[in-house]
């Protein structure tokens, strides 16, 4: 009888192990699908085609990839360069294929930093990202402060408060309009 109990424990452990393995396989499959979807939706800065990035571009020539655009070193990238600057003498533009500037600063590039089109949602420029827009970095911006009324909760939405005020104004206008003009009553015999 003891062998039956240990046998059932072994089958439960085996089932649990199979279940955990199946979960891991499904999670791995989901991860692979997410990566494939992300790669499918990415836009190559080299040829501006969807479905691959610059490092996997079939039209890419190996010039200019993996080097520092400031000093030309192949030991590090521009991000880790010790002598940062605003010029890129070793960069090759993906749009016009000339050296000395990036595609985002190219005169022939209408889309700028936005390969799918569009631009900064604040000023409309294609030369910078939304996070780098100067109007958003303005520290002198005005702060909007809401006012709580006595019958209002702290989590009341401003939209609902404004709607309630509009409704109260309408009711007041109806009451005052009714007092001014009495309706004519027609009585027929």
Tell me the series of helices and strands, N- to C-terminal: HH
What is the CA-atom radius of gyration, in angstroms? 33 Å
3D shape: flat
List segments where confidence is low: pLDDT < 50 over at least 5 consecutive residues: none
State the helicity in percent bands: 25-40%
Q: Biggest sheet, in brief?
A: none
Could you state the oligomeric state of the chains shown?
A: single chain
Category from helices, strands and their pairing: mainly alpha
SS summary, helix count: 2
Termini gap: 105 Å
GO molecular function: nucleic acid binding; zinc ion binding
Biased composition (Basic and acidic residues): 12-22, 29-41
Domain CCHC-type: 44-59, 68-81
InterPro entries: ZCCHC9 (IPR042246), Znf_CCHC (IPR001878), Znf_CCHC_sf (IPR036875)
In short:
The chain is an all-alpha fold and 189 residues long. It has two helices and no strands.
Can you give a write-up of this model?
Residues 1-11 have a biased composition (Polar residues). One of its GO terms (molecular function) is zinc ion binding. Residues 12-22, 29-41 have a biased composition (Basic and acidic residues). It comes from Coemansia spiralis. Residues 44-59, 68-81 form the CCHC-type domain. This protein has 189 residues and is mostly helical. The chain has a domain at 36-133. Helix content is 33%, strand content 0%. The protein has 2 helices and no strands. It is flat and about 100 Å long. It starts with a helix and ends in a 9-residue tail after the last helix. The model has no long low-confidence stretch (mean pLDDT 78).
């Amino acid at each position: 009888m003891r062998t039956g109990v240990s046998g059932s424990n072994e089958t439960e452990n085996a089932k649990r192990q199979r279940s955990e393995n199946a979960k891991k396989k499904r999670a791995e499959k989901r991860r692979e699908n997410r990566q494939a979807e992300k790669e499918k939706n990415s836009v190559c800065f080299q040829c501006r085609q969807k479905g691959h990035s610059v490092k996997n571009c079939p039209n890419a020539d190996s010039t200019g990839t993996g080097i520092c655009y400031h000093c030309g070193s192949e030991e590090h990238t521009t991000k880790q360069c010790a002598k940062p600057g605003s010029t890129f003498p070793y960069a090759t533009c993906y749009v016009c294929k000339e050296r000395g500037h990036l595609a985002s600063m190219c005169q022939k590039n209408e889309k700028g930093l936005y390969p799918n089109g569009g631009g900064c949602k604040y000023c409309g420029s294609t030369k910078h990202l939304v996070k780098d827009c100067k109007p958003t970095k303005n520290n002198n911006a005005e702060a909007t402060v809401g006012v709580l009324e006595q019958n209002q909760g702290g989590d009341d939405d401003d939209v609902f408060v404004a709607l309630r005020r509009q409704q109260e104004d309408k009711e007041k206008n109806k009451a005052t309009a009714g007092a001014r003009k009495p309706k004519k009553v027609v009585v027929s015999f």
